[in-house]
Request: fold
Amino acid sequence: MKTKVKLFSIFFLISLLMASCVAEVSSSNQNTIQSFTITNGSVTKEFAIEENSIRGIVESTFELEDVSLDVSIPKGATISPDPATIKSINGPLTFVVTAENGDIKNYNVDIRREPSADNFILEVNVNTPNLVLNGDIDAEKGLVTKRIPESNDLKGLNVEIKFSKYATISPDPKTIRDYSEPVNFTVTSESGVEKIYQVKLEHMDFAVSRSCTDSNTSKWFGGDNRTDAPDILAFDRNVGTGQAVIVDKSLVPSTFSIRFLEGFTYYVGKQKYNKPVTLKLIIKDASLNVLATTTTEVSENFNGGLVPFDLQSLNLYLEAKKAYTFYWYLVDGDKLGVSSGSAGNTNAGSGFCYNSGYSGESRISRNNSLEDANVWYEHGWHFNIGLEGKE
Reply:
């Protein structure tokens, strides 16, 4: 019996010793940072670890904002602060790694971005009551130019200048209103490199006139009083004309003209209308947004030729190389039943006079209107137009 008790005591002591050894083995003293990386977008940077220090310099284009850190430590260890909570590095950091057994090691992290050498003016916006005009920037020459409508006072302009991140600019553009003479701005990079830009703003005061007069055909324009035309009811339809306009230089238009081959008459009976008619002009941008509308009256004595629309009060600005579409139609043309012919050219060519033509047709019986965008379609001809203004 005593022998059994002794054996039990021995086994019990051995078990305690084994448990103690296991406990000692499972409590690691590892508290090192094994790897350290920073990711911004799709770019990841890895940094060397020297004893308890992590240092490095990244390119000026690698932002230390909106970043994510990936820090590897031994199993069972902990790190503070949690790297997942670090989204920007604005100065030195300290991470504390605590081993499983409680041993602590501090790591000093000092990662900096190389100062940027960028000292560019990126954008110049001239804010007018009606629109925002973007300045033309020649970075090589250090010159910013823009011609603006004469309705804007050069001594009272609101000009916004955007420049390289981390750079500074002098004088402060917010304090400058007078651009009646060129204004010089000095842009200084984060690294201290200076670049001078001259901002030169002038009025659009050069008068120009363009016209497209070559004609070898005409298209039906206006209403229709025919009773025997296929699929057409008398006094039902109204046909309009359109023309795309693209200018080489930005233009403030003052007059837009269209050309008809004859006065307004009834097709059946060929009787001249002998009363004034009203034409409406709709101007749209490339996205078919309506920029402006206006009307003009054609006298009862009109026998063909140019019909002008006065655009001066519309404060329009046609930007160079962009497409604008001018649509015109006879107001109440369906009910009036009178028509004329839009003069056009079927030849192929390039330049101002050879952009796409348009036609539109509405009908009372279909409950639509030439105000509706879906009744207009591209037409293969180029219609006679005139455009005057200042650039």
Remarks:
- The first helix runs from residue 2 to 26.
- The CA atoms of residues 184 and 239 lie 55 Å apart.
